[in-house]
Design a protein that fits this description.
326 residues; MetI-like fold; 16 helices; globular
Length: 326
Amino acid sequence: MHPIVSTILQRLGLGLFTLFIVSVIIFSSLEMLPGDFGESVLGQAATEETVTAFRKELGLDKPAYLRYFEWVGSVMTGDLGTSFSGRAASGVDRSRPVVDLVAPRLWNTLFLAGMTALIAVPLALFLGITSALYRNSLYDRTVNVTTLTTISFPEFFVAYLLILFLASLWPVFPSLATVDDTTSFGQRVLKTALPALTLTLVIVAHMMRMTRAAIINLLASPYIEMALLKGSSRSEIIIKHALPNAWAPIATVIAFNLAYLVVGVVVVEVVFVYPGIGQLMVDAVTTRDIPVVQACALIFAGTYIILNLVADIIGTVTNPRLLHPR
């Protein structure tokens, strides 16, 4: 078997095992939370018999390990369960499938993440390449200081600064990113501009500095010196010779930051009241809607693992020693 194929299969197996471990941690963490959903819904005045009957209706009376295997089995068939929201002691069940709650919110989060990636990734690559090209110049130092400044601020602080300057003092963009199914594409882009800009300012420094460091590290290689002796220009050396060999670390940091765009948008979604999956998870934690919390956490974990697997595979494929084994 070719080394690349065996390495990819090993990474996929490791990813599935990691996802299994994460699912156990998610379920166990929710089990260890204080309080009880039945008591929180029925109130303190409810009798013990009423709480017991309500827990039995929800399936919370079963042992934890049985509920875990039932949950995992349902997830493997595409069933994320039924939301606890809408259930009441009166017996009227207005709950909805978790998939119906998560799907539109996940689409909103992926739209915001995709819009941010379209801005942040090309910008980070451009700044990283040009900073390496003009290393130690005023431009290089300015870019480094600016990106380090933006990354040192918390997301909510950057968000409030953008709201202050671009929505209040100079009303260029709307301060709230409230979108729904009826929002047109143009309005959706306009309303998600400030959240996307906030995320861009937060993540662009990681990708820019990794791109710059990877290229500068390769500039001391013998084949780069040979290209210089042959009369190649500095920009040609970086773009044609250094950049292709720097894709492995660059792809890794891009994958980490793309995973953050999906996993770490909770604060940004809350600040801008954006109806994404992060906001849904916060609301579900508040109402103790366990199936929704489990689904959101599993989606976050799966996204992070998948993007890291993609980064590993790109790093493997771009490795000449694996592409051309002896």
